[in-house]
Amino acid sequence: MAKKFVIEVEKVNGYCACGYKVGDSFSCSGLNTPNQAFCGGAYAIIFPMQTALCSGSEFHFEKNPHSKTGLACPDNGYVIFNIYLLDEQ
């Protein structure tokens, strides 16, 4: 079964062409894109972390080692994202 992820918007520090707001969240599984339209530039930053987490990597410097926080949008870092691997049950 594919691992499940949640991508959340942590901060918005300026104009976002996609209109993302703090607290917005998106689901995805395995190495698939989110389940709804999602900014390609932002996903280019998030996807390597999704790949690492999907492959069993852990980020021990994070509060939750099955997550990666502070992923800055390539458009001047106006939007900050977090990705979380959900507990497998």
Task: List its traits.
single chain; about 90 residues; alpha+beta
Briefly characterize the structure.
By secondary structure, the protein is α+β, with helices and mostly antiparallel strands. The protein contains one helix and four strands; from the N terminus they run E-E-H-E-E.
Descriptive overview:
With 89 residues, the chain is an alpha+beta fold. It is 17% helix and 30% strand. It has 1 helix and 4 strands, in the order E-E-H-E-E. The chain has one helix at 40-54; strands at 4-12, 25-29, 67-72, 79-85. Strand 3 (67-72) and strand 4 (79-85) form a beta hairpin. It starts with a strand and ends with a strand.
Question: Distance N terminus to C terminus?
Answer: 11 Å
Q: In sequence order, what are the helices and strands, one letter per element?
A: EEHEE
Q: What portion of residues belong to β-strands? A: 25-35%
Low-confidence stretches: none
Could you outline the blueprint of secondary structure elements for this entry?
Blueprint: E1 4-12, E2 25-29, H1 40-54, E3 67-72, E4 79-85
Antiparallel strand pairs: 1-2, 1-4, 3-4
